[in-house]
Amino acid sequence: MKCITIVGARPQFIKAATISRVLRCTPAVTEILVHTGQHYDSYMSDVFFEELEIPQPDYHLGIGSGTHGSQTGKMLEAIEAVLIQEQPNLVLVYGDTNSTLAGALAGAKLHIPVAHVEAGLRSFNRKMPEEINRILSDHSSDLLFAPTETSVKNLLHEGIPENKVHLVGDVMYDAALYYENLADTHSQILSKLKLSPKGYILATIHRAENTDDSARLHAIFQGLMQVAQEIAVVLPLHPRTRQALKRENLFSKVSEFLLLIEPVGYLDMVMLEKNARLIATDSGGVQKEAFFYRVPCVTLREETEWVELVEMGWNCLAIPSNPTWVKTCILNCLDQTSGVHPEVSFLYGTGKAAQLTVTILIQH
Ligand code: UD1
Ligand code: UDP
Q: H or E segment at 202?
């Protein structure tokens, strides 16, 4: 079987690393890796290929940044050309970015079976670009690998036939288990930043609804600056957020209060997450990693597609409407480490999502 994997953005490199490792040990499969170039700075892309030992892409499309239509359109055209040349049996896409949608559409239009890893997530907020990408990618796919029971229900509710949907668990949980020890032995980030375990809050912000809305951006960063007067706040800064802070003339003020660092590689990120007193984030992946490492989490969004963590009380959803609310939610949750019931330990599978996915791909 010839499988073309499409990746392009940071979280997809991490997800693809887990499945590619299994695919490469499976003689029946040849994987061809296509990088759309959606993320291109070395700390948004190369570092993951090196650290996670992902093979160099067979095709690098070099699409880069752009408006949604332009970026997705260029990817669609370039991926289509690769698919026509390679004639694969399968297109494998991950998550909910513009690279995911372009890959799924290109495959579906050429009648090549499409497999979607991390299918069925819904925030039910169609203003999120990711929500449109998820829905369209799922409805273009032939094999849908759902990470949670809720995601399975969402797909069935939308009329996707049950035989296309497979509950396999979350490949990011596989990654968390696989790389945790490696992070312990390889990452020097805590000493480099002079941080002590549980002596800081880790924050990440990059979602368009927060960075592109001036009031939201001010509320979040002013709230975080107030928190930093009580406990150190470390924030690896996504390039989108760096630009937004500069645009709003907030950058220099924020850098006085928060420890702003460049985006970090995955092993350093795992180390920062595991040792944080609390994580404040708008990232999908980081919310779950907080749970994997049993660190309290505040999600600075109106809603989340990872609803289980909010329902069980691990993740506190805080709409970033004003600085005081952001600060209050974070400080109130600092010690909120309610015991995790044994049943929910396997909310995201057992760490075998990648193996299960590949087994089903081959059977198909
Ligand atoms: C994208 C995904 C989002 C995902 C995130 C992971 C879409 C619609 N969004 O958001 O779902 O959570 O990746 O991080 O696909 N930039 C750089 N260097 C880079 C990459 C981007 O400077 O290597 C800057 C560019 O100015 C670009 C902006 O960041 O315009 C946003 O990048 P883009 O890939 O469009 O969206 P993300 O916010 O990264
Ligand atoms: N991540 C990382 N370095 C960083 C920030 C995030 O390695 O500086 C990892 C994080 O641990 C998680 C993934 O990137 O595994 C999440 O990506 P991101 O927040 O960009 O996207 P999302 O999950 O929201 O789509």
A: strand 200-204
Residues 40, 62: Cα–Cα separation, whole Å: 8
Q: How far is the CA of 355 from the centre of ligand 2 (A)?
A: 22
Token digits of residue 262: 């460049």
Nearest CA to ligand 1 atom 26: 240
Q: Is 206 a catalytic residue?
A: yes
Q: Which of 39, 116, 206, 238 is catalytic?
A: 206
Prediction pTM value: 0.97
Q: How distant is the alpha carbon of residue 276 from its chain centre?
A: 19
The upper half-sphere exposure of residue 264, i.e. CA atoms within 13 Å in the direction of its Cβ, equals 23
SS3 state of residue 121: coil
Token pair belonging to 253:
């003020």
Which residue among 283, 295, 301 has the greatest number of ligand 2 atoms within 8 angstroms of its CB, and so is best to mutate?
283
pLDDT per residue as tens, the chain (364 positions): 999 999 999 999 999 999 999 999 999 999 999 999 999 999 999 999 999 999 999 999 999 999 999 999 999 999 999 999 999 999 999 999 999 999 999 999 999 999 999 999 999 999 999 999 999 999 999 999 999 999 999 999 999 999 999 999 999 999 999 999 999 999 999 999 999 999 999 999 999 999 999 999 999 999 999 999 999 999 999 999 999 999 999 999 999 999 999 999 999 999 999 999 999 999 999 999 999 999 999 999 999 999 999 998 889 999 999 999 999 999 999 977 666 666 677 899 999 999 999 999 999 8
What are the tokens at 360? Answer: 């089903």
Q: How far is the CA of 112 from the centre of ligand 1 (A)?
A: 27
How would you classify residue 43: left for phi > 0, otherwise alpha for psi between -120 and 50, otherwise beta? alpha
Sheet containing 90-94: give its strands across.
59-60, 30-35, 2-7, 90-94, 114-117, 143-146, 165-167
Asked whether the beta carbons of 203 and 281 are under 8 A apart, the reply is yes
